Amino acid sequence: MYAVVGCSECSNLWIIEGRSETTQCPRCGSRKAYEKRKKFVETDDAAHARDVRASMLANRQGEGEAFAKLDSFAALEDDVADGVVDDAEYLEESGLDVAEVEAAGDRDPRGPSRSGSKKEIVEGALEALDEPTEDEVVDYAAERGVDAAYVRDALEKLTRRGVVSESRGRYRLL
């Protein structure tokens, strides 16, 4: 059993399935006994209850005439199910190569194997490499999409802050 009910506090309309002792308005939260709620229609068909509620909402907004020209929700759902275009078909009809689009989606836009921020990559190089030179850190970061100027600047800042030590051209984390 489905019922289209209304709230006397906020005028909300909703559908209730079954018959509980009390109902709560999903908009304002007011609770009332099921029997005290205004029931506009009671039916065994969920689609019919949806159609009635939608019609009432359309009438409230002055669109009742336009709504009357539409099919029921069940018919609209069938129309949509039949007319859905999948992604591959849409891309092909747009003149795009589906395989290339999928491959592009799999690529990381930041570079082939970049993970983390630029600073994290520089620090990761210092952790992964055993007392690397500046050039080794630059190469490590460049493989992950970080430019050399950023790496050199980051090494200088990390050294000034005391996070990294530099001795004879070799760096290590402290």
From TrEMBL:
Chain positions covered by the region annotation Disordered: 96-120
Residues covered by the DUF5817 domain: 2-58, 120-173
Pfam families xrefs: DUF5817, DUF5817_CT
Transmembrane segments: none
Highest taxon listed in the record's lineage: Archaea
Protein name: Uncharacterized protein
Compositional bias ranges of the Basic and acidic residues kind: 104-120
